[in-house]
Specification:
Elements (H helix, E strand, L loop, with lengths): L1 E7 L2 E5 L4 E3 L4 E2 L3 E5 L5 E8 L5 E4 L2 E3 L2 H17 L4 E8 L9 H16 L6 H11 L11 E4 L10 E5 L6 E7 L9 H7 L6 H6 L1 H13 L3 H20 L10 H15 L4 E4 L6 E6 L3 H9 L6 E5 L6 E7 L4
Parallel strand pairs: 7-9
Antiparallel strand pairs: 1-6, 1-16, 2-5, 3-4, 5-10, 6-9, 7-8, 10-11, 12-14, 12-15, 13-14
Bound molecules: (3R)-3-hydroxy-3-methyl-5-(phosphonooxy)pentanoic acid (PMV).
Length: 329
């Protein structure tokens, strides 16, 4: 029996991934850039043994059906790489609430890729781990490397992986996540990616992505907050324009979401270094310079419709916490 535990952070995309050119391989139509969210993590233990089936528990609740199938798909990839047949028991826990607008799948699949490959006796390189995590959830590819990360679109399965463009200590950015809804979203990102191409705006958004990636990468490397805030808002708005004009249309925003956009732009026009971005949900990620995080959090809590605010700085790479060969005695 072999076992390993790994831990990884969720990430927030500054330039978003939306749409696949290959849904099964999760090969994206465009590159993306993100920041790992420090302090928040998924911790996953994988144990290969002689049991009959794979089993999964998340936060101590047994999961079957689609959730288990997605995990078994990654385990199958690992089994074939390691040339083993043993089934696995997977248990995972998050230290951040579900439905908080923080993609738990990114952290979960990054931790799974690392724990499963280690438990199977493999020592995968960072690009190999990122590619493996990508097969579970595209954004999980970005939770393998540390700090500020770019996932290159790639020309093939082999070169579509994420890498660090700046380390954790490079820039003291903080993500204040304003919670306006804890309802489970009706359409998850897997279905969303599959219909992205039905929007007449998607081709234009994709064709324009190298420009946005360049601006965002440069803003991060030169720590230019104004340019960073402008490009993340523009990119998030473009992705949501595609979502809203897909067939069927996806409208993730709530009235409070839009209220926060107005407040954030107003604060920035008055000199506060803040900018917003939203994933496939109603909650708003307000990125700010670390020195202003307390003030931003306080102001957000005063806005109508905001029920809570989570605060996260820049996070490191996915890590193995424990790995062992256990005797079956
Ligand atoms: O990795 P997925 O399939 O959950 O897709 C993530 C999609 C967004 O969160 C909306 C954007 C992104 O790049 O993280």
């Amino acid at each position: 029996m072999t076992t390993a535990t790994a831990q990884s952070h969720p990430n927030i995309a500054a330039i978003k991934y939306w749409g696949n050119r290959d849904n099964a391989l999760r090969l994206p139509v465009n590159g993306s850039i993100s920041m790992n969210l420090g302090g928040l993590y998924a911790r996953t233990t994988v144990t290969f043994s002689a049991s009959k089936n794979d089993a999964l528990s998340i936060n101590n609740h047994a999961v079957i059906g689609k959730g288990l199938e997605r995990v078994s798909y990654i385990l199958d990839l690992v089994r074939s790489m390691a040339n083993i047949k043993e089934k696995a028991e997977v248990s995972s826990e998050n230290n951040f609430p579900a439905g908080a607008g923080i993609a738990s799948s990114a952290a979960a699949f990054a931790a799974l890729a690392l724990a499963a490959s280690k438990a199977a006796g493999l020592n995968l390189s960072e690009p190999e781990l990122s590619r493996l995590a990508r097969r579970g959830s595209g954004s999980a590819s970005r939770s393998i490397p540390a700090g500020f990360v770019e996932w290159r679109v790639g020309a093939s399965e082999e070169d579509s992986y994420a890498f660090s463009i700046a380390p954790v200590g490079h820039w003291n950015l903080v993500d204040c996540v304003a919670i306006v809804s804890v309802a489970h979203k009706k359409t998850g990102s897997t279905e969303g990616h599959a219909i992205a191409g039905t929007s007449p705006l998607q081709n234009t958004r994709v064709a324009d992505t190298p420009r946005r990636l360049d601006i965002c990468r440069r803003a991060i490397l030169t720590r230019d907050f104004e340019s960073f805030a402008n490009i993340i808002e523009h990119d998030s708005d473009m992705m949501h324009a595609v979502m809203m004009t897909s067939n069927p249309p996806l409208m993730y925003w709530q009235p409070a979401t839009v209220g926060i956009f107005h407040a954030v732009r107003d604060w920035r026009s008055k000199g506060l270094p803040v900018g917003y971005t939203v994933d496939a949900g109603a909650n708003v990620h307000i990125m700010c310079l670390g020195d202003y995080a307390k003030e931003v959090e306080t102001k957000l809590r005063e806005l109508p419709g905001v029920s809570d605010v989570l605060v996260a700085g820049v996070g490191g790479a996915a890590q193995v916490i424990e790995s062992a060969l256990r005797s079956t005695l």
